[in-house]
Fold each of these.
Amino acid sequence: MASLKELKGRINSVKSTQKITKAKQMVAAAKLRKAQASAEAARPYATRLAEVVGSLAGRVLVGESSPRLLAGTGKSQVHLLVVANSDRGLCGAFNANIVKAAKLKAHELLAEGKTVLFYLVGRKGRAPIRRDFPKAVLGMFDTTQVREPGFTEAEAITNELLALFEAGKFDVAHLIYGKFKSALVQEPTVQQIVPVPTPKVAVSDGAVVEYEPDEETILAELLPRYLRTQLFGALLENVASEQGASMTAMDNATRNAGELIKKLTIQYNRSRQAAITTELVEIIAGAEAL
Amino acid sequence: MPLHFELVTPARLVLSEDVHLVVVPGTEGEFGVLEGHAPFTATVKDGVIRVWRSAGGSAEEIPVKGGFAEVSAKGLTVLAEHVG
């Protein structure tokens, strides 16, 4: 049985671990509120843009001359998986789940005979994906330098993706990120981003709308923006999900630490009592022997 | 009835109010939007949007980048990637 001193040491170490997990939980809760607020604030732009792109795409016939972002390259051989992870750990299975979804999708595509490439956003997805697909990582984006990935980052990522697309490095791109359902549930989501799936909107009043310049030019200009917005939205969702997952994971960790402390304390008290009893018995036995 | 004008960026809804006149620097030339404007969609070049809250008042200038304007029955909506 562990000595009293050892037990005391363990109790103290678990106590300090609990302090850390508790602090992290509270930080995550505060950050989650902020992340949710900014996700909320981003919604009007995204919905408006989706409406406009949807109604424009409904008017323009997809053909030879339409923008490649909408029509695609005509092939679907090379698939790019854009995997958005977080930079920090301590958030339970959040990153593992996203990576798992990405690998599942990759294997599915490989089974269909497609070529799969990866573009990794965030630090935590790099190691596990590199381990399984060492040669398939096309590019990476580092978000460790900024506190919260924002629109600037979404812009930079999109520009890089567009450059790769223009260079013919891939035909279809999917975005994989953690969709925020609630603090308890984050859903790894796979979503096609290139060619741009046109949002379905009912063409509103049917009024004659004038375009300046013409529809095709506007659409060509709006598609990259739409892509940026989608990425931006995904990054925001990811941040919210990460904080939610972190909060839940840290709550569990704190509770576990509490239970462990309780158990260890009981053990400590018992062994102390046992030591005292033994001592007493020895003294009494000694006194009686005289 | 005044014109309902909304200015939206990816990060937030910057402005949403009823105004008198908005002058937008379109790619093919500046255009002013009053209430009752015909449905109209245009790209906006990087420049300054001028907003008159009331007739005869002075204009408020808002610099925008990467913009796009849409006039519908509901009013004027400008989507810009960067404002200010």
Amino acid sequence: MRIYMDNASSAPVDKRVIEAMFPYFDTHVGNPTSLHSSGIDARRALENARESVASLIKAQSKEIIFTSGGTESNNIALRGAAQRKKKKGNHIIITAIEHMSVVNTCKDLQREGFEVTTVPVDKYGLVDQARIEAEITNRTIIISCQYANSEIGTIQPIAQIGAMTREQDIIFHVDAVAAAGKIHIDVQQDNIDLLSISSNDLYGPRGVGALYVRSGILLRPVMTGGGQERGLRSGSENIPAIVGMGKACEIIKEEIKSDSGRMESLQERLIEGVLGNMQHAYLTGHRTRRLPHIASYRFSFIEGESIILSLNDLGIEASTGSACSVKTLEPSHVLIAIGLRPEEAHGSLLLSLNRWNTEKEVDYVLESLPLVVDRLRALSPLYNGD
Amino acid sequence: MDIDYSEKVKEHFRNPRNVGTIKDADAVGRVGNPVCGDVMEIQLKIEDNIIKDIKFQTFGCASAIATSSMITEMAKGKTLDEALEITRNDVADELDGLPPIKMHCSNLAADALHSAIEDYMEKQKKGELKLGENEYDV
């Protein structure tokens, strides 16, 4: 038995999505810019997909552009808005737990003369809207805050921040890659100007995503060429992938309530099962303001790579923010931002669910985890057996 | 199990040899830092300058645990001089190699062994002194 609980890294593609994509590889081959029937077919498929994506986040379909994924969406949003607005100002505000595609894009913009302020989060990963507001100057042009975090699940007060940014005429970018399809998103109600989503997190194919660009918001394109996607993302559209993403949005819009409800009860079982039965085990992130599919912990005295490899031997696939698991040998910046010491961040474990995970799988994980943790603690000189 | 590790690393990680502590150990060596994610402790029982028993405890990744396990096998039965000659690279070689990134951070087992042997030698020096003092007392 293999149990896959690393869906925040990569999720399976829904069979219904794969089926919808198939014809667009061989029989429906047109390019949407072509004038012939196949071109018209492709154009129709593209616009249907756009409509499905828009509908999931309560946007208009003309406000959606397709990209190659969350990273590209974040790049187009931040670089595009910064370049477009640089006459007005050069100041960007982000939070301390943004995805690396936001963090590193902002670092690059800093090299070009933009100023970036990083607002800290509390120990649950929550950002305080008042702290963002306190950093705003008359040079502030963009505030970028993720909807929810993919490593600790914490959901931010997006509506509050949105109301504030709209009032102050600052562009509000939201990275909703982790949140989309898991909780309801309404870009109108939350006053969001730019919103990034990724197809794979919706059980669609990898390598495709979207950026919501509110009507009236102007961006300077990062990719220039034939002017596809309102000139914001030139290059022939990846129609099979886009059709897949559209189908994934269509499905998840119908099933979000049942999906998220089911995952939330599994998540609850995972959290309670660990915190209630294991010593020196702690939840990371917020207890209630969290995405329904993220069960994140840290275990004292042991190291995350060892946990992951031991779980893998028992057929369970998960991930960790431990420094030993990545090429940079630095612990997850998210775990450090919520105040964990590096040695604490080493012992982190992330179980991220998908719509197909079962209670039986959760129970197997709950049986296996203590075996792994106990074995590693027995090996650890930091653990004295209490 | 991770693709980057050799079969030997995996095997030692899954079934580490000589885990634990020694009652009345003659020497202890502890290296590493929890901040970096690796702490190794090696305990020795020594008779006639030969390592009669060796145990380890390690906090760290799979390669940290595997190198610790491997060095206990390599050092057991060796004289102290022979054991001091075991290098980090020897341990990695015995394990059929480590991923390059793990060569520095998680390959501290030789350091832990050497630290334990140095601890023993320090104690020996002090012990001789102590013996002298005792004689004085009598």
